[in-house]
Structure formats: C-alpha cells, structure tokens
Amino acid sequence: MSAIREATAFLLLPVVLAVIVLLPAWVYLVAVWAVSLLAAAELLAILRRVHPPTPLWPPLLLLAAALPALWALGLAASGPVLAVVVLLLPLVHLLTGRPVAGAGGAIAAAVFAAVYFAVTGGAMGLLRTSFAGAYGWKILLTHCLTIWGGDSGAYYVGTYFGRHRLAPVVSPKKSWEGIVGGTALSFFAVWVCRTVFFPELPTTLGLAVAALLSVLAPLGDLAESLFKRDAGLKDSSLAIPGHGGFLDRTDSLFFAAPFVLALFLLVRPTW
Question: Where are the domains of the chain?
C-alpha cells in the first residue's frame, strides 16, 4: 500500500504544482471547485449511510453555485451566500415532498455538507486570489506544502515508531509519535518554502503558520474520521489509489484553509 501511495503522489504532485504556480488562477479555481464537489459528494454518501433521507443533489447544486459566487463577490458577500444555502435546503426538502421521518437529521446533514465545503473550499480559492501578484500562489503553496510535509512526517514516523495512540476510537493508527514527526516536518516545510520561493515571509509569521498547521491539520483529519467511523468506513472512497477518496485527501488542507486565510489577511497591511 505504501508503494501505491508514493507512486500516486509522485504522479499527481507535478500536476498540482503546475495548477497552483504556472497556470492562470481561474484554472486553479476550477480545480478547487471540482474537488470540492467530489469531496462533498463523498461526505454526503457517508452521511446518507447514517441518515438515509439526506438528499444528494440539492446540496451539491447549491455548493456548485455558492463557490463561484464567493470567489467573484469576495468575503463581503460570504454572509448572504451562506444564508441562501442554509435557508434553501430546508425549503427544498419541504417542497420536493421528501420523507418527514428523519427530516431533521437529513436537513442538518445536507446543510452541514454544503456550508462546510462552501467555507473551506471557498477559503482554498481565496488563498490564491486575495493577494496581489505572486503572493497568492506563494501563500497557497506554503499552505499546501506545509500540510503535505506534516502529513508525510506523521505517516512515516507514526508507521515506524508509533506506540502511543492519539485517538484510538476515532483513528486507531494515529499516534503521538506521529504528531511529533508531523510537527517537525511542518516547521521544516515552512523553512524550505521561505528559502526556495518565499523569502518575503517574515520569520515570526512563518513560525505562526507552521504552529497553526501543526495543530489544525491533524484536527481536520480527525474530524473527518468521526464521520467515517460513525458510518463504519475506513476511507471515504477508493478514488485515489493508496490515498482513499477526495475527502480523505482534502480534509486537512480544506479544514485549515479558513484559518490560514484569516491569518494572512490580518497581517497583510504590515508586510
């Protein structure tokens, strides 16, 4: 499984880097839009195992419209856009004659899936488009490489040295040793980013990013694991060989994106 995981990463990484760095921003936004919908569909499939009346297409269609609206209109319009999603989904359930039994859980699941990916997928897009010039792709690439580095550190250190389970009920394979390895690789990844392509990144801000992602990335992973364990699943799907599904691959990246976006927007006037 490790060989398949590494081979898939080796093949996909150059494509992802090209989309982030070399191609126009709209290409990246289209990619985030597609991945958000695929991951949301996997989450909805998981939720439907626990709450069978949960609708599939209404939340996906609203998400498909909400993401471009957020990117086009900016953060100032995020409140109204999310309000439309929250208010329309119960109406859709009502007006399409879906079952009354289990309606509360179904509506809550649909609203959560749509809003979660509108917020997190929206932030992934805004990381690329909210900053002038090359800062957009530099901030985004730093975000991605730091999380990928931390994930790799946690995986390999946890695999070979993990002895003390972090959350045995939610994610049996995660260990405290893996967290230490992931944290070390997160800080190393930020140092590499500053050295190779982002020398403008202040040292204190880089340390803050590494510390923030060292905490948020595993939390995003564990939060997704809650849904999978509740549904009795190990992976959200088998779409990506050796890596599970799109939800499995985006959990940490997407979960942490709103926080990193907020951090850089907060300090932007000072650097």
Answer: 2-270
